[in-house]
Amino acid sequence: MNFGTGAVKITPAHDGNDYEVGERHNLPFINIFTDEGRIVGDCGKFRLNVAKRYYWLYRNWNCIVDVIIILWLCRSAAALKMWWNQGSPFSEISDYWVVVHSKAEVLQKASEKFQAEVYKIVLQQDEDVLDTWFSLFPFSVFGWPDQTDDLKTFFPTTFLETGHDILVSCVARKVFFSQKFLRQLPFKQVYLHPMVRGAHGRKMSKWAMLWTQWMLSMV
Length: 219
Hints:
Elements: H1 16-25, E1 55-56, E2 63-64, E3 86-87, E4 90-93, E5 96-99, H2 103-114, E6 124-125, E7 129-130, H3 133-136, H4 149-154, E8 159-163, H5 167-182, E9 189-193, H6 212-217
């Protein structure tokens, strides 16, 4: 070989292709990130400044890396507002965004970064939310775990009307969560409506630019 050694890195815990290689050869899956997304202290120092290429978070272009963790993942659009879903863990301080577990933690980070007393810091939580319908309706949205009047009035509800495409991914999970936390079925009946699809059988989707308002604007 006239260039290089032919050696490549293998990071089964942080790359999809490497994960498959690690599975085939029983390699250790070493996670170099903490739960907060920081690199752990035993990884050594970088020898060279190399070009780093990762997937990018589409909303604010922050870099994200694959990490193996035990977690429920929700594949849905985070486009609703705070009063309907559970709040996102993002907070803004003068265009400085952080992801934290608690308000106390974000205040501490902001205080360290800006060298300011905690009581002088004003936080603004991201108005968007983590869209997890199956965990929030029909009980979290009414104030659970507090025994609110709304919760007593509206849970359980009578029936749920939805599309058949989310029967397992959403409706079944509503039942699981309600049985787990409130020991009741969330509804007695489920009505499934038909789906409006495009010319090639694709589901109407804002993300795919396949929805009626957009199509009418093109006429």
